[in-house]
Amino acid sequence: MTMIDQSKPVMVTGATGYVAGWLVKQLLEAGLTVHAAVRNPSKTEKIAHLEQIAAASKGSIKYFKADLLKDGSYAEAMEGCELVYHTASPFTSNFEDAQRDLVDPAVLGTKNVLEQADKTASVKRVVLTSSCASIYTDASEVKDTPKGMLTEDIWNTTASLEYQPYSYSKTMAERAAWEINEKQSRWDLVVINPCLVMGPPLNPKATTSESFNLLKQLGDGTLKTGVPNVGIGLVDVRDVANAHFQAGFRPEAEGRHITCGHNTNFLALAQALQPKYGKDYPVPKNALPKWLVVLAGPLLDKSLDRKFLRNNVNHVWRADNSKSREKLGVTYRPMQETMEDSFAALIEAGVF
């Protein structure tokens, strides 16, 4: 049972990020002092949205320059904090070297932050942003799980540097976090494991993030003939942020938490957009045959691996979110609300 003193500052790594932005907003509105660890505090365009939120909130924000891969760079930001949120990690499918561009920043960055927590006497709890990717690689694995669904007890054992390196990076980073935590007893570790995150960004420029690539294709005509019916989980960014907030301050919070609002698939995401946007945008109405997706997918997009397509198209994705609901008190928005708000953000940003 870890009690966090809300009069003390709270540190957030990657504070300008997609999920982190909504978390910082909730912290500021609750009247807390946020120590925002960012790569370059002098880039005013990167922090402008946080400044606006802080100006309208009871809390306050202070910025600290920090580098995931530089030892000791979080020391100043963490000083005096009882609660640390580590949200910063690479999320991209555009990389040249998986080890250098994905695994090293994720693992070494996590070690850097948590080892600093070891050195900072005030720290009582670290909340880590992990992913459902540290639980599974392909939707085809779900049917072979003990309960026929993903749970917090399961670890990803199938991803590698060669196959689904992003999932591998998240798995290695979370394992490293637990290893560091288990070597001491002063601070506890609480982990949030979101599935695919969508929802409106607080930073208008965040629509360039990886989370929005699929959404763009659903609205720009790329997939107008049909979608590859990939089984996935979906969660709203605002609900993920709330899960983080609750994980920080609920004394009884412990362990991993699957943070997923909906067990779904790509076709259902498109169908959720149809009522409001189907008439004005080429939102797909049908799923493509699996044989066609597996055959033609890699020819249309080099990032689409035939093994991935075989293991994810037309496979049912299911995850158990009961722990996040019961232990963190998280409630999940309707999928249509998430999809419509996300699409509206892209329209406002001039993507379509």
From TrEMBL:
Residue span(s) of domain NAD-dependent epimerase/dehydratase: 10-258
InterPro entries to which the protein is assigned, alphabetical: Epimerase_deHydtase, NAD(P)-bd_dom_sf, NAD(P)_dehydrat-like
Keyword Oxidoreductase applies: yes
Organism: Phaeodactylibacter xiamenensis
Keyword annotations: Oxidoreductase
Gene Ontology MF terms: oxidoreductase activity, acting on the CH-OH group of donors, NAD or NADP as acceptor
Keyword match Chaperone: no
Domain of life: Bacteria
Name of the protein described by the UniProt record: Diaminohydroxyphosphoribosylaminopyrimidine deaminase
Family: Belongs to the NAD(P)-dependent epimerase/dehydratase family. Dihydroflavonol-4-reductase subfamily.
